Amino acid sequence: MSLSDTLVSMLSMAIPIVAILGAFTVAIVSTYIHYRRQRELLQMHHIERMAALEKGIELPPLSPELLGVGWGRSRRNGRSSGIVTLLVGLALTFALRTNGGGWWGLIVVAVGLGKLIETVLGLRGMQSPGAANPPGFGSGPGPGPGPSQPS
After folding, report:
1. Angle between helical axes of 75-98 and 105-126 (0-180°, round to 10)
2. pTM, whole model, 2 decimals?
3. What number of H helices and E strands is found in the chain?
């Protein structure tokens, strides 16, 4: 075995390892940046609220960033990821069945259907008539001055 063959075999093993480590590094760094930004937003909001309380100004409502909206799964993300997972599962099932691989793709189909069902049930829970809106969101009475009374 020559030096070039040894070098090629070492590089062929190093490339996937570096790619996997790079993917984990990107995921860890992005998560760290997100939580650092979230912490800074909470600190700034706290300072703003404390200053408003000291001055006697009405407190502003909580922003969606502070409540976690925009990170993770939204209703639209749940629906679209469920549809994509379902279609990938159907394609995988078709590919495996034509090559004699069995019905293993149905596992992915089940995951996609589960995501879709979870999204639909979540939407129904959000639209129920008795559901209360969190303060500062949606219609309805909230904090602040009420209607003025005629004297």
Report:
1. 160
2. 0.43
3. 3, 0
Cβ atoms of 86 and 67 closer than 8 Å: no
Q: Which sign does the torsion angle of CA 136, 137, 139, 141 carry?
A: negative
Q: How many domains does the chain have?
A: 2
Owning domain of residue 56: 1-72
In a domain, 141, yes or no: no
3-state helix, strand, coil in the chain (%, to 5): 65, 0, 35
Q: For residue 139, is it within any domain?
A: no
In this structure, the answer to whether residues 30 and 65 fall within a common structural domain is yes
Length of the chain: 151
Judgement on whether residues 66 and 1 belong to the same structural domain of the protein? yes
Rounded CA-CA distance 80/133 in Å is 25
| Residue 1 sits in the same domain as residue 68 | yes
* 43-62 tens-digit pLDDT: 988 898 898 889 988 877 77
